[in-house]
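Let's practice the habit of predicting before peeking. Look at the sequence and jot down your guess about where helices and strands might fall. Then scroll down.
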Amino acid sequence: MHKEQYQPGVKVRHKRYKHYGVGCVKKISKSGERAQVKWQSRYLYFYGYYRLDFLEVVQDA
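Done guessing? Here is the structure:
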C-alpha cells in the first residue's frame, strides 16, 4: 500500500464492504493512517473514517 496515492479527490472502494460502492476521499487523518471517505448510496450520502489498508484506489471511476 502506498499512502501517497490516497489524496483528497481520489476515488476508492472498501475491500470488505463492496456494497458501499465507489467513494471519494475527502481528507487524510493527521496520523496518515485513515481517510475520511464520502460514500454515495442511491438516496443519501454518508461519511466515515477508514483505515487505508481497507481501501483500494479505483482507476476507472
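How did you do? The domain at 3-57 is CATH 2.30.30.140 (SH3 type barrels.).
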